[in-house]
Amino acid sequence: MKQNYHAITLDKRDIGETDRLYTFYTYEVGLMRVPARAVRKGKAKLASQIEDFVLSHITIVQNYGRGILAGAVAENYFVALHKNYEALKCVDIVRGVLLTTIGENDCDKNIFALFVQYLTQLDEIAQKQEDTEQQSKMQWITNSFLIKLFALQGYTFNIVKCCTCSGAICETRNGFSAQRGGILCENCFKSEEYLSYIDPDTLKALRIIQSNRLQSLSKVTVHNNVQVQLGRIIVDIERWVMR
Ligand SMILES: [Zn+2]
To answer: Separation of 166 CA from ligand 1 center, angstroms?
Structure first.
């Protein structure tokens, strides 16, 4: 029995002499691990179609139990992304989060669409001139993608009021705690152990991410301090998701 899937290659591992075990994120069934026979032999064309972070159509042949990868045709190689060191660093972070937070056969078509959109945008940014602004934009899109990914997984956070006392958010400095459910005012965060401080600009960035589609976010520019604070928030959420 043959079955086709839309897939993005997340990871691969050599097994035996010439085989490989691939991990795909698919539109149809979510995360899927499947072996490919003789894929490392000589001129195996199959391997080039399913390099890491390539969008492809794959065919699985099911005999007994687990299927075997029988064919693949790349739909988008995201060439510029693959040639850009900063872009590869970004997708490597994303790979880590996806592999740790998504279980096998946990299917979500919105996550797949968001992931394709993210790779497309990163590839577009990678086509432009390499400079610090390009790097910053890639990090911003990556941080935005991750916060949207967590939201699709059901991890949304209150960024309107203090999530402990329901009081107003301070104008100068607040805290963020995934465990508490979002923003904490200055009074409440004093006693918190795991907490990231956030400046008003970071709070603004979180609101922009929450209320805009990923496509529109490429136009937004944020400064380095915001990126650093968003990075800490993401680590905090990831730790909370994996608890
Ligand atoms: Zn409070």
So the answer is: 6
